[in-house]
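Order emerges. One example.
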Amino acid sequence: MVIRKSIVSSFLKFDRAQSLGGILLFGATIIALILANSQLGVFYENLREIPLGINFNRFSLTKPLIQWINDGLMAIFFFMIGLEIKRELMAGELNSPSRAALPLIAAVGGMILPIIIYLLLNRNPEASHGWGIPMATDIAFSLAILKMLGKRVPLGLKVFLAAIAIIGDLGAVVVITLFYGSSINWQILAWAAIPISLLVGLNFLNFFSKYFHLLCGIIIWYLFLKAGLHPTTAGVLLAFTVPMWQRTDLKTFSGKISVIADELKQLSREDKPLLTSGQMERIDELEEWTERVQSPLQHLEHVLQNWVAYLIIPVFAFFNAGVAFSTGMQPDIQLVTTLAMSLFLGKTIGVLSFSFIGLKLRLANLPDGVTFGQIAGVSILAGVGFTMSMFIANLAFADVAKLMDSAKIGILAGSMVSGLTGYLVLRYCRRGNSQTKDK
């Protein structure tokens, strides 16, 4: 029961961060579109292309600013995604068949159907590589929309949507790794296997050092970049090497801090502006025991949550969402329509139909307080595929500016229609009660 309450509390904090992050994401997108279509459009483009890098003797690594954001800053986002996935698999909503069944089935449908619809509707061979764009759900945007509905949305529905998005992110990571990298240099990749194997071994020993993991993470990121794998994949792999369990149980920790507190009281009889050596030793001991009782994975996720939601994702949106709608612009309307339909129809049909099949075959149950009508609303809302979709579009159409801009327009259109329609369906949908179950 204590563990369950802790999970719920963690999710509520996560929900608040993602909801506000979704608002910032929306604001950054609007600002980017305004700048790109104003007299500051040239400044906006030049800002994205500012070269930044490191040159030291024979070592050189220089990229445009937007590339550092997409390859470097987003590696932190993918690291966060990896932490979320590991937590959900080991101690969250995906750690048991009964809780994982419905979101897992729904997420599979939500990945397969958008791909199928994209491949069926696409008629341009040049755009065929963009099939992975509509497969993921943007967790920040979608949870922000649910937040707007207030008490109409039960906690179980939020958890269901978050689980779908997290599973979709995992699927997107696999797709990026397998299909959106360049030709792989296996020799360099073999070198990357050395620090990865070392971190995996330390994970089994339940040992964690943030500085050592950071150093290994930078090395792995660089080797993945040079090997031809997308470097953000290194973030996910690194997350899976972070230990889940703390080294000290809470009962032992509570007893120890009581002892330290008593010792501090004895050493604090005189009111002095500076700590004595004895007091500093006890405080250092307290910090050491605090570090022992914290789950490294949970602590890192807590630290990074706000940075990712409030800074990294809005910055990514600002530098990637700015499409200039000039009079001479000739977007690929067919691609725009294909992506919008893949997000809206693909996600709706995929999540809803697979959920229905799973419930009818009694492979899964509805979450408490959730009606099937609300599942339908979330199925539509799952078509909000902003961040990961934009990211994959950058990989799929990196060398074709017209297709990239068209893809971004299609993502914006599909996400907007899905978000508005999903909101309206959930707004007027009948609410369930705590006894709602699939019969």
